[in-house]
Amino acid sequence: MAESVTIARPYAQAIFRLAKEGRSLAAWSDRLRRLAAIAADPEMGNVVGNPKFSAGQIADLFMALSGEPENRELASFIALLAENGRFDVLAEISTIFETLKSEDDGVQEALIASAFPIDEAQLAELLKQLEAHFGGRLQGRVEIDPALIGGVRVAVGDRIFDASVRGKLDAMAAALKN
Fold first, then answer.
1. I need a labelling partner for 80 at 20 to 30 A (CA). Which of 42, 73, 122, 133 fits?
2. Overall domain count for the chain
3. Residue pLDDT, tens place only, 119-136
4. Buried residues in 90-128 as b, exposed as e (16+ CB within 10 A)
5. CATH code, 126
């Protein structure tokens, strides 16, 4: 996983710069999502991994399936991926691109761990409160972690806000040991 992210990052950064200069961030976001979906298809995996097909043939197939067969920038990007055999990291490229786009918009991702499911209204209210705490716009992603017992633990970048029952119990245990 870490290796594929390391491989994907330069591609995502280059596409992000190209999209920003061309004021086409939303279009590239859609393109990368579409390409990642194409690459994730099991039948396409059989084609990409098959030595009977050349890099050019695979690139042509991706272009035909892209929905934008006349886009020169997209064709160059796909040809580069084909030449380097990097279709397997398209999902990571798309994810990193979205992160760069969000950072550029001033939006940070908040990873919210909760003991119980959170509905949309609760998430919206929680994000509003967290934005005041973290001082910026947040986009939330919720993961269920029953070990928290109750409450939430929020990670934004390298900052953690722990309002979980498990966090409070751990803090009490540490205080009692001292």
1. 42
2. 2
3. 999 999 999 999 988 888
4. bbbbbbbbbebbeeeeeebbbebbbbeebeeeebeebbe
5. 3.40.30
